[in-house]
């Protein structure tokens, strides 16, 4: 399957190792310990490699600003709030999401491998990034995982039938390990992830029709609907726009967003998207269910049935001859192979923003890209 081209004329192509090295050095300079800086850098690069530029290195300036403002803290450990064995609830203490969500997921995986399943709640995590990363950890351990996620304090998305913001972009993710390759579904319940609006605002891929809505109900693809006025290089503040992102899939996506807010926000306890005052800080909540096919029944039979079914779905006659039917996870795998080989395309403006952050922290960036 050929990966879709995602390279615009103004993009620069950066080798994956160079990009990870620059981001790693930025977070070392911002005060993170080596393990944490490398984890943040490899997670953000991993999102770019998977093709989810919205959750990749474009986030670096904002992460550093959040750290400088004290909204996200280096060196935190997720701690257990309640523990029933099969259910465990943790607090991330506003640590970097890439650190505390990894710690929480490591624990859930350990429990599910021992007992067959584990329900894990995490509250007060800094931005955890691409949720598929955590499902990939479970897949590597041979586990199915289901993740409901919300963003406490971030209200960006209008519910079905509305024009005002009520939901966060509340992602949902399911990973299923199979010997032939995993099936991995991972998406925001908003029409587009907020990061895709961020990418579009820095000269990257344009937004699809109907992604945003103005207060008067007009549909929009203009990032200013979400961010209000902004300079071409510099921060974007989603609280300054008058409009909203729309929920995907009409009443169904809107309903799934509601469930993410209720399970990852209200039940895990870090709070929902709103109603908010001047909190200034956002955090991710996550409710994850980890399940071992080995403990659940006959793993071999499950895998054989799933393999045949996946092949049958993929064998469906395509609507367009140049676009075969794919299963969730395939686009990311193809993009990863392509970008590892050829480099990661970044809009010049995204790279300029990262370089500006690096220079401010005294980090040298290669200027011969
Ligand atoms: P998206 O709309 O690109 O959808 C991605 C999903 O659709 C993947 O599972 C992919 O395999 C599947 N897919 C794509 N094309 C396909 C095709 N042709 N056939 C079959 N399946 C296909 O994703 P998104 O909504 O833009 O989300 C991007 C990322 O943003 C996700 O990784 C998500 O976890 C992350 N996110 C994180 C937060 C947070 O607060 N941490 C919030 C929102 C989104």
Task: Tell me briefly what this model is.
This protein is of the alpha+beta class and 369 residues long. It contains twelve helices and 13 strands.
What does this structure look like?
- The chain has 369 residues and is α+β, with helices and mostly antiparallel strands.
- It has a domain at 79-299 and 329-341: Malate/L-lactate/L-sulpholactate dehydrogenase, NADPH binding domain (Ribosomal Protein S8, Chain: A, domain 1, 2-Layer Sandwich), CATH 3.30.1370.
- It has 12 helices and 13 strands.
- The chain has helices at 16-29, 34-49, 60-69, 97-115, 132-140, 194-201, 224-227, 250-267, 293-296, 299-314, 330-342, 348-360, and strands at 11-14, 79-83, 87-91, 117-125, 144-152, 157-158, 171-176, 183-188, 212-213, 219-220, 244-246, 283-291, 344-347.
- Helix 1 (16-29) packs antiparallel against helix 2.
- It is globular.
- The two termini are 29 Å apart.
- The relative contact order is 0.18.
- The structure holds nicotinamide-adenine-dinucleotide.
- Nicotinamide-adenine-dinucleotide binds at residues 52, 54-55, 127-132, 149, 151, 169, 171, 173, 184-188, 192-193, 196, 284, 326-329, 331-332.
Which range does the strand content fall in? 15-25%
Count of individual beta strands: 13
Whole-angstrom Rg: 20 Å
In terms of per-residue confidence, which ranges show pLDDT below 50 for 5 or more consecutive residues? 1-5
* Main sheet makeup: 7 strands, mixed
Give the CATH topology of the domain at 79-299 and 329-341. Ribosomal Protein S8, Chain: A, domain 1
Instruction: Name the CATH homologous superfamily of the domain at 79-299 and 329-341.
Output: Malate/L-lactate/L-sulpholactate dehydrogenase, NADPH binding domain
Work out the helix count. Answer: 12
Bound molecules: nicotinamide-adenine-dinucleotide
Helix content: 25-40%
Order of helices and strands: EHHHEEHEHEEEEHEEHEHEHHHEH
Shape: globular
What class, by secondary structure content? alpha+beta
The quaternary state of the protein chains shown equals single chain
- Going across the biggest sheet, name each strand in turn: 2-3-4-12-5-7-8
Distance between the termini: 29 Å
């Amino acid at each position: 399957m050929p990966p879709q081209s995602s390279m615009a004329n103004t993009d620069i192509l950066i080798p994956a190792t160079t990009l990870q090295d620059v981001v790693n050095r930025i977070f070392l300079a911002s005060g993170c310990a080596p393990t944490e800086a490398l984890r943040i850098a490899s997670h953000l690069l991993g999102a770019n490699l998977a093709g989810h530029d919205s959750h990749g290195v474009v986030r670096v300036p904002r992460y550093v600003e959040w750290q400088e403002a004290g909204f996200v803290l280096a060196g935190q450990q997720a701690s257990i709030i309640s523990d029933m064995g099969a259910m465990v609830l943790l607090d991330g203490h506003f640590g970097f999401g890439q650190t505390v969500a990894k710690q929480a997921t490591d624990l859930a995986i350990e429990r599910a491998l021992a007992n067959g399943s584990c329900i894990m709640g995490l509250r007060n995590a800094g931005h955890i990034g691409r949720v598929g990363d955590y499902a990939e950890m479970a897949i590597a351990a041979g586990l199915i995982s289901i993740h409901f996620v919300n963003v406490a304090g971030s209200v960006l998305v209008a519910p079905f039938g509305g024009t005002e913001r009520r939901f966060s972009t509340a992602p949902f993710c399911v990973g299923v390990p199979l010997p032939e390759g995993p099936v991995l579904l991972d998406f925001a319940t908003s029409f587009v992830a907020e990061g895709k609006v961020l990418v579009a605002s820095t000269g990257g891929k344009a937004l699809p029709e109907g992604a945003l809505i103005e207060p008067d109900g007009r549909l929009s693809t203009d990032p200013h609907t979400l961010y209000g006025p902004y300079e071409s290089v510099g921060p974007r503040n989603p609280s300054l726009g008058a409009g909203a992102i729309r929920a995907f899939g009409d009443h169904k996506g809107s309903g799934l967003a509601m469930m993410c807010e209720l399970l990852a926000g209200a039940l895990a306890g870090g709070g929902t998207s709103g109603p908010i005052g001047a909190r200034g800080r956002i955090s991710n909540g996550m409710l994850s269910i980890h399940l071992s096919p080995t403990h659940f029944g006959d793993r071999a039979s499950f895998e054989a049935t799933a393999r045949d079914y996946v092949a049958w779905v993929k064998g469906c006659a395509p609507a367009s001859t140049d676009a075969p039917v794919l299963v969730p996870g395939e686009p990311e795998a193809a993009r990863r192979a392509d970008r590892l080989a050829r480099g990661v395309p970044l809009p010049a403006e995204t790279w300029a923003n990262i370089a500006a952050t690096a220079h401010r922290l005294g980090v040298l960036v290669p200027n011969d890209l």
